[in-house]
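A quick word before the example. In earlier lectures we treated sequence and structure as two separate objects. From today on, think of them as two lines of the same record. Here is Amidohydrolase written that way.
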Amino acid sequence: MSYEAASSAPGAEGAASVPSPPAPVPSAQEQGPPAGAGSLADELGQWLQERRRELHADPELSWQEVRTTEKLVGWLRDAGLEPEMLPDTTGLYVDIGSGPLVAGFRGDIDALPVTELTGLPYASRHDGVAHSCGHDIHTTVMLGLAVGLHRRQQAAAALGHEPQGRIRVIFQPAEETMPGGAQEVIRQGLLSSLPRVFALHCDPRLELGHVGTRIGAITSAADVVKVEVAGHGGHTSRPHLTEDVVSALGHLATTVPAVLSRRIDVRSVVSLVWGHIQAGSAHNAIPSVGQLTGTMRVLDADAWRTAGDMVTEVIEQVAAPFGVDVSVEHVRGVPPVINAERETMLIEAASREVLGEDSVILAEQSMGGEDFAWMTNEIPGAMFRLGTKTPGGEDFDLHRGDYAPDERAIEAG
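And the structure line, produced from the sequence above:
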């Protein structure tokens, strides 16, 4: 994977002028939150709401989160913290407290190449780029965690109590790429002294005030499979004189997923779905080349490690009777996120204490990919689903231009 580093590292001199927490700022929302649920009326909550709207209006794609990094550095420094930027790229981290590291928390900061359709007054200012996966919420929750913990530790120190243990908050770039920015975080050693790591993801179908947890695989591995088929083309009136690329592609598209379901343990839950098929341009000409691309998703980590070789073997076997030449490219994406039992139970206990006994639900296993999985491959960790649906409100989906999470989820997170 290649990427361009930021042209200049953001620092205190280059950062935009930003308001300092915890001074309250007026709400920019034309309508207040629905009555009855938790409010962002406190100082820090109001400040976080405004910071989230700044992030939402100024989204940046993977590995391009320069302004986002600058904003976060400025806000954290103004709060009295000392963030460190990742060398040679975007993203940052900050440690709160003193003594040994006791836990890490990761929030992803990149946006999607999607056009925003919400019509909100703080909608994206950039055509074709939007926070349609909730990463602005993730980032703001982590910002609030860092600032809130720092304020509590300052208050404790003023009373002569010095809590021991450091918390590390990681603002990770480039989650929306494959294999993702988590590997850069690992490469730079940010997990090497951490005993555990946590993350969250917005869930647009889960109501506000609830979190979804699951021990074991909560997301799927996700890879890309690219197939190219080549042969002698010719006239459609004489297919017997050709190596029929179109027929070969058709059989591959329908047969390979079915064969995989009989070659890999069904308990591993393997899904191969094609998203693109292309060959030829004339109705009466059999082309000489065609392509088929799709994604392969696997819930079981062990099955994922062998599935690439298996899918290549099956593709070659299915294509063989057509006499075509086949090349297969299997692009490793991300493994499944495997939630550790102890870390999951810690999330559940905290959720019940803060949000109530009925706040925790069993999360569905998602077939989506998530590069936080590389972190849980390294150290114990867990990811939870954060409810962002307004009770009784509209259903949304992630990666849609109209996704509008309920901002009160920031406080819950």
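Notice the following. Confidence is low (pLDDT under 50) at residues 1-20, 22-41. We will return to this example when we discuss secondary structure assignment.
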